[in-house]
């Protein structure tokens, strides 16, 4: 992928959309607390484990070759206090350090794949931890475990457990066997899976799972809820015409999940829209 050159702030929504209808889940433990998810845009997601907040793959600006294709749900300045930042890999649309270094708390724990810590430290972050697949760290009430990924560069995905809930964040990985077999063996109960669906190809070579593969993974993970990510992105005219190919939309995920993962509830969230997962009675 082309690297980002000059970047400009991305457009932010002017007013928050109404919250999505909440989902009631059977509690995976008696202490399960409400979990709120808000898609900022693309793979940037804010997870709120009842007051303990985690941000994934920060991307807040655009360049001539990288467009969100949707406004942002919030700016860096509007972010709440974060307990952790998870970074799947070093591509600009997942690790926009030039913008994210404006986040004021430089001691926020930042979890990155092996090889990325030096960049984060140069941007001023002081608590940066590199994780190999299946390594776990504890951050407050959360246990965060790196999971494998395949994307042509060093990438990890994440399982975040806390307050009785388990979330899987899929970055922009391809669908690989370890995610369909080892991941559900280690984490048999996934409440929420954030799965990429745009099936991105670079010169014909697939780098991201498509919508149908995301439905397969939702089934393998027994995910109770899936929120798709990584689908509105567009490059520039040249890259979209000659370099990149897209293979997946939220509508395709909805129809694929009806067949392949009928027990999974798929929710498509507008940027800034909040979805609350609550314990059933
Ligand atoms: Zn990428
Ligand atoms: Zn990506």
Task: Write up what this structure looks like.
The chain has 281 residues and is an alpha/beta fold. It has 7 helices and 20 strands. The chain has helices at 97-100, 117-122, 177-180, 182-186, 211-220, 237-242, 250-260; strands spanning 8-9, 23-25, 35-41, 44-49, 52-56, 61-62, 84-86, 110-113, 128-131, 136-139, 142-147, 157-162, 165-169, 192-196, 201-202, 205-206, 225-229, 244-245, 265-266, 274-279. The radius of gyration is 17 Å and the shape is globular. The mean pLDDT is 95. The site of one zinc ion has 5 residues, from loops.
| SS field, number of helical segments | 7
Label the overall shape.
Answer: globular
Alpha carbon gap, first and last residue: 48 Å
**Which sequence of SSEs, written as H and E, runs from N to C?**
EEEEEEEHEHEEEEEHHEEEHEHEHEE
User: What can be said about the biggest beta sheet?
Assistant: 8 strands, mixed
**Protein structure class:** alpha/beta
Q: What strand line-up does the widest sheet have?
A: 2-20-3-4-5-7-8-9
Secondary structure elements and pairings:
Blueprint: E1 8-9, E2 23-25, E3 35-41, E4 44-49, E5 52-56, E6 61-62, E7 84-86, H1 97-100, E8 110-113, H2 117-122, E9 128-131, E10 136-139, E11 142-147, E12 157-162, E13 165-169, H3 177-180, H4 182-186, E14 192-196, E15 201-202, E16 205-206, H5 211-220, E17 225-229, H6 237-242, E18 244-245, H7 250-260, E19 265-266, E20 274-279
Parallel strand pairs: 2-20, 5-7, 7-8, 8-9, 13-14, 14-17, 17-19
Antiparallel strand pairs: 1-6, 3-4, 3-20, 4-5, 10-11, 11-12, 12-13, 15-16, 15-18
Helix pairs in contact: 5-7
The structure holds zinc ion (ZN) (2 copies).
One zinc ion binds at residues 89, 91, 94, 151, 172.
